[in-house]
């Protein structure tokens, strides 16, 4: 599998006054896709809550290349671009592409796992998080940290 891919349907509320997709909608779609993928890999919100950990982001950045409009048929492609061997730190990229494969935007997030009881980075990384991220497709330029 080259990436997790999903077609996106835009809503009227995703548009800005210029009638193209507003900047913050991209981040919302990326966050939703990450959670859906983790759920699919068995790392559900319930599991994270029960085991007392969850993802924490250090950086989230979007590079906008082509505007997106309400009627555009867009696919989000998600994969890891960097990760430590123990999955304690990672970077995930989301590419927003038209059906003709034109790259419209790229979101990059850098994160780790947080112990939700201690409110600090989880150490060691929970095994289920290591398993889930090891299944994640990797980018062509993937870097092991």
Automatic annotation (TrEMBL):
<dbReference type="InterPro" id="IPR050563">
    <property type="entry name" value="4-hydroxybenzoyl-CoA_TE"/>
</dbReference>
<dbReference type="GO" id="GO:0047617">
    <property type="term" value="F:fatty acyl-CoA hydrolase activity"/>
</dbReference>
<dbReference type="Pfam" id="PF13279">
    <property type="entry name" value="4HBT_2"/>
</dbReference>
<keyword id="KW-0378">Hydrolase</keyword>
<dbReference type="InterPro" id="IPR029069">
    <property type="entry name" value="HotDog_dom_sf"/>
</dbReference>
<protein>
    <submittedName>
        <fullName>Acyl-CoA thioester hydrolase</fullName>
        <ecNumber>3.1.2.-</ecNumber>
    </submittedName>
</protein>
